[in-house]
Amino acid sequence: MAPSDTGANLNGNEFNFRLMDMGQLLERKPVALFSDEEAVFYPDVARLLEATHRRFEYVSKSSLMRGNLNNFSVLIIPGGYTLKLLENLNDRSIQSIHRFIENGGGYLGICMGAYVASEIGLVRSSTIRVSGEYNVELSIVEPRHPVMKGYAGRVKMSYQNGPEMIVAAEDTPLAVFLNGRAAIIAGSFRGGKVVLFSPHPERERSNWKMIENALDYLVMGRVT
Q: Which fold would CATH assign to domain 22-218?
């Protein structure tokens, strides 16, 4: 078969790189999982990442303060003590997270990570603090979004003090609580992608695919 006109003027290396998906290139970088004392539920996320063969490394507040995120594809802030983390994040740490996402990194926030994302300006959506620990039923409102691939209708998920999110026009609700407030949203920060979960999809294997979908989505190029 004759080569196509599209690749006729490319040398071998250029052609190979064009064939490779940008997400695959970024996936060579590991995920950064925040695991300091505030992130009490990071082991649940680590178990998921190990079981799904995702490369990851643990990062701390010191890592954030030093700006040591360039070698990662996605930053995950898991569940934990929100107020304590917000008290302990200084301006340098917040600026480091901003630069990372602005430069093409992704941000995945779960529970505490969703609260933090709103507080440090990664999304325009606001959060309402709600208390309780139980299983919730969510309605998928954007089943065609890449994060929701394989899910439709309603799903059950573990909930523990996560936010109800009031979605700004710039952000997209993916799933909502039965009261209509957002439980999962997708947004962007200066071109970098952000996905936030109020409940805990990492706790049930039936919901693990959402995390996998989110990680794939977060490394698939910038929002234009």
A: Rossmann fold (3.40.50)
Rounded Cα distance between 167 and 117, Å, is 13
Q: pLDDT per residue over 161-195, tens digit each?
A: 999 999 999 999 999 999 999 999 999 999 899 99
pLDDT value of residue 191? 86
Cα 72 to Cα 27, 29, 45, 56, 97, distances in angstroms: 9, 5, 16, 8, 12
* Domain range annotation of the chain: 22-218
Please give the Cα distance from 58 to 191 (Å, whole number): 25
| First-residue to last-residue Cα distance in the chain | 37
Rg for the chain (alpha carbons), in Å? 18
Question: What distances in angstroms separate CA 32 from CA 29, 43, 84, one per listed residue?
Answer: 9, 13, 20
Using CB atoms within 10 Å of the CB of residue 86, give its burial: 0 to 12 exposed, 13 to 18 middle, 19+ buried.
Answer: middle
Distance CA 224, CA 221 (A): 9
Q: Assess contact for 108 and 218: CB atoms under 8 A.
A: yes
Query: Which residues on neighbouring strands pair with residue 165, listed in sequence order?
Result: 127, 182
d(CA 166, CA 163): 9
pTM of the predicted protein model? 0.87
